[in-house]
Design the sequence.
């Protein structure tokens, strides 16, 4: 079975850098799944910085949605796969869906997102000798947002994180550049 590692933390906490170093410490071909979409200058700059930091040793994939539909192609080429990040996949679903008018809209969207995440995790579980490292933002540590859409996003992202954490063999939390291990099952990490 594949090994799943979840790296969580706040925005700009250093979780992506930690996940990249962890990925590089493992044997095999590295794959980087970037989920961000450049809709504005800030996001373009963020993506550019991530690309520059990674360099050229990775096989790069830009997949903003429905990662499970592309998983077979990625898994055939890569041994260690970094997915950065689950929070952005959730946001991409919300942006694709458009305005959530009712609670029923939000519930249907959450069901769709969770279906995609569970389908991806099911595909991953059958990949032997692969390590998949997910990056995500921990959003639930602050106040309850006043904005309804922000609450939907926070709640759905929290469920996505829980689903991946439930299947993860290891989990790390990065706060202000310091990473601690939260969960560990038997996983062999070289280096």
Sequence:
């Amino acid at each position: 079975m594949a090994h799943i590692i979840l790296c969580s933390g706040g925005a700009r906490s250093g979780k992506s850098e930690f996940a990249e170093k962890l990925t590089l410490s493992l044997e095999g071909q590295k794959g980087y799944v970037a989920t961000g979409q450049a809709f504005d200058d800030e996001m373009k700059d963020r993506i550019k910085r991530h690309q520059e930091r990674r360099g050229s040793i990775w096989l790069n994939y830009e997949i903003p949605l429905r990662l499970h539909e592309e998983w077979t192609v990625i898994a055939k080429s890569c041994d260690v796969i970094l997915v950065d990040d689950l929070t952005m996949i959730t946001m991409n679903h919300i942006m694709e869906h458009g305005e959530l008018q009712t609670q029923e809209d939000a519930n249907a969207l959450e069901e769709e997102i969770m279906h995609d995440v569970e389908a991806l995790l099911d595909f991953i579980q059958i990949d032997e000798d692969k390590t998949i490292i997910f990056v995500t933002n921990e959003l639930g540590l602050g106040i309850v947002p006043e904005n309804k859409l922000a609450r939907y996003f926070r709640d759905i992202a929290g469920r996505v994180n829980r689903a991946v954490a439930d299947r993860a063999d290891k989990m790390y939390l990065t706060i202000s550049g310091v990473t601690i291990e939260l969960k560990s099952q038997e996983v062999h990490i070289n280096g």
